[in-house]
Amino acid sequence: MKPSIPKGTRDFSTLEMSRRNYIFDTIRTVFGLFGYRQIETPAMENLSTLMGKYGEEGDKLLFKILNSGDFLAGADPKLLQEADSLHLTSQIAEKGLRYDLTVPFARFVVQHRNELQFPFKRFQIQPVWRADRPQKGRYREFYQCDADVIGSDSLINEVELLQLIDEVFARLGISITIKLNNRKVLAGIAELIGSPDKLIDITVAIDKIDKIGIDKVNEELAERGLSPEAIEALSPILTISGSVEERLARLSELLGQSEIGRLGVDELQYVLSHTAELGLRATLDLDVSLARGLNYYTGTIIEVKANDVAIGSITGGGRYDNLTGVFGLPGVSGVGISFGADRIYDVLNALNLYPAELATATKVLFVNFGAQEAARSMAIIKQFRAAGISAEIYPDEAKMKKQMTYANAAGIPFVAIIGETELEAGTITLKDMVSGTQEQLTALQAIDKLA
Amino acid sequence: MKPSIPKGTRDFSTLEMSRRNYIFDTIRTVFGLFGYRQIETPAMENLSTLMGKYGEEGDKLLFKILNSGDFLAGADPKLLQEADSLHLTSQIAEKGLRYDLTVPFARFVVQHRNELQFPFKRFQIQPVWRADRPQKGRYREFYQCDADVIGSDSLINEVELLQLIDEVFARLGISITIKLNNRKVLAGIAELIGSPDKLIDITVAIDKIDKIGIDKVNEELAERGLSPEAIEALSPILTISGSVEERLARLSELLGQSEIGRLGVDELQYVLSHTAELGLRATLDLDVSLARGLNYYTGTIIEVKANDVAIGSITGGGRYDNLTGVFGLPGVSGVGISFGADRIYDVLNALNLYPAELATATKVLFVNFGAQEAARSMAIIKQFRAAGISAEIYPDEAKMKKQMTYANAAGIPFVAIIGETELEAGTITLKDMVSGTQEQLTALQAIDKLA
Fold this sequence. Notes:
Two copies of one chain form a homodimer.
Chain A: H1 14-33, E1 37-38, E2 44-46, H2 47-50, H3 55-61, E3 64-66, H4 77-81, H5 85-92, E4 93-97, H6 102-111, E5 120-129, E6 141-150, H7 156-172, E7 176-182, H8 183-193, H9 199-223, H10 228-238, H11 244-254, H12 259-278, E8 283-286, E9 300-306, E10 315-320, E11 334-340, H13 341-351, E12 364-366, H14 371-386, E13 391-393, H15 400-410, E14 414-417, H16 420-425, E15 428-432, E16 438-441, H17 443-450
Parallel strand pairs in A: 1-5, 7-8, 12-13, 12-14
Antiparallel strand pairs in A: 2-4, 3-4, 5-6, 6-11, 7-9, 9-10, 10-11, 14-15, 15-16
């Protein structure tokens, strides 16, 4: 039997973990600086919490957990006889695995609302599971890193989240463009052209204009059932160009008749200008075709792209006005973002952006020459560790060559040798595995050098 | 609908998370100092990896994941008609949730053996899931923190792990006793009395001797089917007393005829003396009744008890000679320990041992008095964060009292006030929420004070 893991899941080696932890630690540190505090929710949620929250397709992609014990005892014999998987599921599975961090967070807020301070700023870094068809860059288990503030409709939150995104990617060394849109602008456009049900077609069209030109876009819109009047009304929006400020001003004119559209433009204006004022390393862009989570977001929509790697969005988010309504707590507005750790990992790998000093291994390996030498080594290792230096002794009295090979292969940068000579002299021979140089040092000198 | 979570699972609040992270960070740091490197394995494993590894009871306690799609399509109609849950399980569920970290680690080692350096020192901190009946202190989702070294039979590993345990609990401020035993000593005792199948009864008897006395213990042993000869042969072992050294010496005499028994005593001797030589803050004890994982451990057995709280073992481990054999890689010896994070959490809570400076909240809240004040505040917050100070602004222009109540309830230790006066003077009024004192400072002075 050759052992394996379920498709779409991954083992992470020690090297991969040191790199992943670098990403998670960076995000966690910045979340903390911005006043977001960590919570965790269980991997398993009641299926009643999860079902119906991600659309029909999402329901299918939920991993469901078989009830314990005699799970068929209460099942409908007719469904069993008919092998009706669909309707039997709810009778034999009560729990499912977390599909994202948003729905469990909404459940958390409602369940604990009397213990929480609002506005509640939380972050959460946990894996989620989806029974998607695995493919390159798409996994059945992956991490999400979410920060949300709930119970405040101030746009200051949006400005803060954009600064937070900027800070995370500046620390990671990834050059980014942050694209902004506002659901209310999209609502205004729909109002303007009288086709609110065609919003997705419209955003797809706006997205394609640069690639295929206005004529082809209009053809497509007609095929999708937009009336000639609607296509004509949309045309000025499709052809907006210029700087962010110019496009925003033009949008403001075009949506002048729509109250909700004007509100959306004002919100974009506020967020863009206040964020720019505070100074951002990222490029800020307005993208009216941005429609992620269309049925979910109600205000600001945020998407982040890496400038130097061709990959999908690496972070996204937005404002929602009714996250907790489905759990019985209506009227609570929130805004949040989600970092895609796995894609960020791919970007860092592609650009080789990991810091050189990333600790991927022990700092010093003490070679083991025998009982007496090992005893001295272990006493000195204790001092090393007390000084914060990661150190280990090769546990077996193996050939020198084998021990050096181990150090090399494990990427350990220093080897400490205590043989007969050093035992007598009370010293350590410290070998730099990169340069190959070695020197005789006392324990304290070695600690000074390595700490 | 009142939202809830599956029984036996938990949400962790921001306060709980800061405390749990303190435990995990401490353990992780010490693991790193000792040269253990982190890996992660998927939450889901193939059931073929997990089944049969935890005994019949364990198989029942595995959470099994329903296959996606039409999971009944290939199911045996006869089993369906008979509602035979037991035999249907393997036809409708291929995956299960991780039950511990040990079996996935063994699978990992075998699967990746050509990429690993041996001896391989890894640590792993991840949740595990068991469909146990939930009760006080027993959860269906809980974290394990394991460190193992595999591919070395040197007893130096045992000495290092005892030092590691000592260091973790010293850092956490928990006074502990480390109990040691050796499976070979138990094998020697069984050999001595000619009842190898009664090993568990024997260890239970040894454990009870102090509480109920030798006569009652002998009665019990007779009831359990031990022959009068066996009981007589066991008697000198039951009555061993004195210091650790004295007990070890006596054990050595009594097991003189058993080769494996002598080997066990020698191993205990080595581990005890070498660990003591390096200096330990914990109390080291010999406990011949210690039998955890009897069918699993083959050498050293380790168990840790808190001295000041009545609670089960808070850490345990030992040496195993055939961890990977079941996956086709025989003859690889390893030794490992597992910290019980949830019980350690209970101990820290019971003794109130959390450090005072544990960051459970943002350091400074800036009060929001309106657009102009907020703009100035946000510019200064940016400087605070650049200096590593966690800071936030109350996003809404709410009443002062509401904002102060928020700071208080969230446990934020400092409030920064920028009103009209401060705006003109270019200062901040910084209020210490604990002492109630406040002072006028420039941004730089405030940073100096708080950083």
